Automatic annotation (TrEMBL), chains A, B:
This is MarR family transcriptional regulator. It holds the Pfam family MarR_2. Gene3D superfamilies: Winged helix-like DNA-binding domain superfamily/Winged helix DNA-binding domain. SMART domains: HTH_MARR. It comes from Streptomyces spinosisporus. Residues 1-138 form the HTH marR-type domain. It comes from the Bacteria. SUPFAM superfamilies: Winged helix' DNA-binding domain (SSF46785).
DNA sequence: TGGGTATCGTCAGTACACCAACGAATTCGA
DNA sequence: TCGAATTCGTTGGTGTACTGACGATACCCA
């Protein structure tokens, strides 16, 4: 009888939210390209020539995961990957023509899906929704990434 | 230049939120037991004797995933699994004594973690946060689970 | 200029999370 | 009562997502 109510647990809610989104994406956007793949493609359309690590940072994926996503995008012919002649450790990534076309097509569908997904909320609530989630996620990421210790007093 | 701003995409935010939660869970709650495992354990403490499918429904996991989670909980000796003598298709699940103890311990830590996780929000904002996410997730799950078609007119 | 350090990408291991297909058990219907 | 349809759990396949360890490359500095 000591069980807790999971509907007040942000982690559980986040998981359910993500799964619900996954299902809707699959039916309304694409069964081939996943949401993380689209995010990476989007980052490369915005900034062609990113290396893997930076691309991962842009969308919030670690080095291992971005490598797998890039590999799948490459397999589909949506992204090109070439060694950086200036720095042999890096791979430079850029979308292919096909990748740009796919990105354009999915952008339209994603916008439609987001409308359906957020339909339960008023426009004002949607703004709050984004703001609250972003603040919580940013703060939690900040706990992991000490970024600027500023004064870094105490210990 | 046709790239979109992902900070207004609920799917992307949901993923980031979940990852941020995952990291905090790992450092503040447990490196052994994951958040989904705790959710399942919690469901079994609340309702001992659930079968796998129903347990999965309680926490929002499909049959394949709940099977793996149960297998890990069983391997750790936290959950017992016996065939239902009334219905040979089912396995009845209940937490072991060790499982109950672990659940109790993690409940305390989880509460602490949630406080840290939600610290960027005021108490009022936290309420809104839960409400908005729950409404969006419920609605999206409803799209997949026609549950009660009621009148089901049109097509 | 050579060696220590840092960075990039990869690989192995673990854990969700979905779908589709399958066998076993049960239930429903003719 | 016997066969069809349903339900439960498993299996195989794909795709995130993290950690830790590793080799290759680059950088920094004595």
């Amino acid at each position: 009888m000591a069980a807790v109510d999971l509907t007040t647990h942000p982690g559980h809610l986040a998981r359910r939210l993500q799964q619900a989104h996954y299902l809707l994406w699959n039916t309304m956007v694409s069964e081939e390209i996943t949401s993380p793949q689209f995010a990476v493609l989007n980052a490369l359309v915005a900034e062609p020539g990113l290396d893997q690590r930076t691309a991962g940072e842009r969308v919030g994926l670690d080095r291992s995961t971005i490598a797998e996503v890039i590999s799948r995008l490459g397999r589909r012919g949506l992204v090109d990957k070439v060694r950086d002649p200036q720095d042999g450790r890096r791979f430079l990534l850029r979308p292919t023509d096909e990748g740009v076309r796919t990105h354009r097509k999915l952008t339209v569908r994603t916008a439609r899906m987001n409308q359906v997904f957020l339909a339960p909320l008023t426009a004002a609530e949607q703004t709050v929704f984004f703001d609250l989630i972003r603040r919580v996620a940013d703060a939690a990421e900040g706990l992991r990434n000490p970024a600027e210790p500023l004064v870094a007093q105490g210990g």
